[in-house]
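TL;DR need structure tokens for one chain.
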Amino acid sequence: MWGDSDGKAGRLRGMPESWESFFNFFLEVYGMTLEIKTLGRQELKNSEAALAEMVMRKFAVMKAERAKWEPMWDKAAEMCSVDSGLFSTDERGRVKQALFDSTGRNALSCFSASLKSVIVPTTTRWHRLKATNPKFDKSAAVKKYLERVTEVLFRSRYAANSNFASESDILFNQLGIYGHAVWMVEDDIGKGIVYRAIPVKEAYIKKNDRGQLEAVFREYELSAFEAVQKFGDDVSFDIKKAAENTPDRQFKFLHAVFERDDYIAGKKDFRGMKYLSVHLDLGSKKVIRQGGYRSLPYMAPRFLGIAGSSYGDSPALQALYDMLTANEMGKTILRTGQLQANPPILTNMGLIDAAKLGSAGAVIRGGLDNQGKPAAVSMQYGNNLAITIEMQKEVRAAIERAFLVPLFQSLTQQKQMTATEVEKREMEKSMLLAPMCERIAAEWLSGNIERELDILASYVLLDDVPEELMYDGAIAIEFESPAVHMQKSGAIMGLYKTIEAAVSMAQTNPGVLDIFDTESALRTIADYYGVSSDVVRTAEDVERLKQRATMENAQAMMGRLLYRPVLAFQTA
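>> reply
TL;DR here they are.
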């Protein structure tokens, strides 16, 4: 069965021989012969072996490319307190602490939460759909249809079992640490769309020379029981045996997704699937499932791009050496502080009760010498703890700057600001955040929405397309996140200020208001704030209202003209 849900290979694989005998008998009765147009068993076996070999070659290349980044990623993750290396053991097996400064972890939490709030805020609509053809901008039917599709997208995205909100938290954490993240949009048939942030350690990615995601290889583990549940009889003999005896034993698998060489657009069979999907058992190097996807199920956004690399730069990598320095400083400060608070005691050989030193209220015999001077004194250190703490503050500030903490806190730190100052801060923030937000939107959200539309269309949930849009138009994605609003706020504020100036000038020259198309200005403001078309009249409706008002005024005027002679006659 070939399908977008990563189905099994399209052939008579796994069919009982009795079924084939039945089909042969059935066809022979009608004077036919069974012709299997798909590959024969041996040919298919050879084809799968060649496919597995090709996938393993690609995997080796992608693995070598990623290997140079892994040591830095491990250290950055350790400094941000999200790695298993947070605690390590010594030669005696005792756990020893490896992290002594939490600046990186705190900065990461602020970074991921703030970036999520300006890109995909849960409480607001952060994108909408728009027709690419400008002539449809004033079409009420097209606008209402696209609003309905947007509503379906958000309902599906934030459904109870979709995991979009929770998994996106993990994605932003990965962007902050590693500089890239891997996101998967799965079609859980019968249940809806499911979102997953793939662990970075599992994913290997490749982008083409245009910066577009070309291939994703995912190395993952399943228990023997889970493997049999997922792949059935296609697993190897070792996995089947383990499922019976040791069902919790782990086995490694590889999921490879890349563009198909023999893709034919419009084909209804597997060749019409643009992306090939292959699951390999890494133990036996055997293809255990082969399928396809109409649209790429993986996205791989980057925080900052690196020329010539599929991977990206991150705040944690930028601040890595500062985090290592702050960690060593924290260790030194703790040791120095402990020595100063509880220093070693210097005594002579004649002190009788030396064991009682440090005990509160203890009576220490021999604690004074013959001259009445203490026989035990604290050891003095020349370390200047204040300077070390001051240096650590500077290093911590550098870490927070790398994670954009001051930028995100710019509005909360200054409690008393005028509207102009707030506007200026918003403009500055939008200018600094624009490169990151635009890259994340292009490499993550655009592909995410296209994948969602593909799945929902297969469920026949996007029917009733207006005829004019179906034959003469395409759909574009327009982002409306707070980050985008900050970039557009300058134009809207300029419109407001111009209107205020015109109203002020109208007190001396009422004609200045004639230069404004007030209806268009109000529609621009409503469009900026995302006002639903249900509460905004179309231009045609407004024109009909004007015509009706004109007719009513004309009728009223005619009535007054007819009524005046009667009044005059009665008066006479």
